[in-house]
Amino acid sequence: MKYIPLKVCIKEDIKDWVKISNGLIDLLKAETCSKKRKVIIKKNSKHWRNKQLLEFLKKLSNNKCWYTEARFTAEYPQVEHFRPKSCARDENWNLCHEGYWWLAFDITNYRLSKPMPNIVKGTYFPIRKRRFAALEPTDSVDTEDSLFIDPTVEDDCQLIAFNRLGQPEPIEEPPVDLDDWDLKRIEFSIKRYRLDDEDLCNLRKALWQSINERFNEYRRLLNKAKTENNKVAAGQANQVKEELKKFISNPEQEFTSVVRDCFNQDNVGRRIISEYVQTQPGV
User: Fold this and answer.
1) Do the beta carbons of residue 164 and residue 205 sit within 8 Å?
2) pLDDT digits (tens, 9 = 90+) for 232-257
């Protein structure tokens, strides 16, 4: 999962959309009848399917799903409400409250998703302590500790790693030891975002194998260049290294977390990352 800086990004490109959203949010907050609020939301549901909004959200992730990091292809990207707008349920599907209706048109509550994560996540939204749940617009959602890992929270995106089989798992060397709550969040998010889907795992596995083959090719060519004083092999090794750098420098690369974990588990990969970082200004 790659961090999406939704809350801090400049939204000048969709200022007209935001203006309409603010009007709809004010309309919802002014309406005291829950049934009428639902009518307002349903009547204006096309607003979060606006083409201009979709292009803006796709640009933030380089045309990739915010949950799976798989590239959007023929399927229609879906705007998922991170905090459900109609009702909120705990991990056992028990109804907790009538949902975060005041966030129905708030862009900070949107996550761009492939159909599968959106459908499976549904109206689940468990939090650690229900007494801290935001039930009204005046309540702060910042007091909630969500069971879901959030792609717009940078620290959250570091919790899940991937192995050579493409399977998601808890990160092995976190900056701070994972506690029971962290592990529960990881397990629940993998399940509800369907990050363990077999097709996704196979795609990640194929990417891992492809990168590993290039690592081995680089080693073979470098060894040939050294033992035989072969200038051609040295040039070919350098070419392979430049190809490997594209995996970490290309913003459109799928499954960047898989790339990160694959590179970090190989001495060639770690060396290439180190070299690449040194060439980046401000890093």
Assistant:
1) yes
2) 999 999 999 999 999 999 999 999 99
The 3-state secondary structure of the chain reads: CCCCCCCCCCCHHHHHHHHHHHHHHHHHHHCCCHHHHHHHHHHCHHHHHCHHHHHHHHHHCCCECCCCCCECCCCCCEEEECCCCCCEECCCCCEEECCCHHHCCCHHHEEEECHHHHHHHCCECCECCHHHCCCCCCCCHHHCCECCCCCCCCCHHHCEEECCCCCEEECCCCCCCCCHHHHHHHHHHHHHCCCCCHHHHHHHHHHHHHHHHHHHHHHHHHHHHHHHCCHHHHHHHHHHHHHHHHHHHCCCCCCHHHHHHHHHCCHHHHHHHHHHHHCCCCC
For tokens 């129905």, the residue is 104
The pTM score is 0.91
Would you state the structure tokens that stand for residue 230, as one six-digit string? 């072969």
Is the confidence at residue 282, as pLDDT, over 70? no
* Domain ranges (residues) in the chain: 12-192, 198-278
- Give me the chain's average pLDDT, please: 94
| 24, 28, 72, 97, 109 from 41: Cα distances, Å | 9, 8, 27, 17, 14
pLDDT recorded at residue 102: 97
Quick: pLDDT tens for 189-224. Answer: 999 999 999 999 999 999 999 999 999 999 999 999
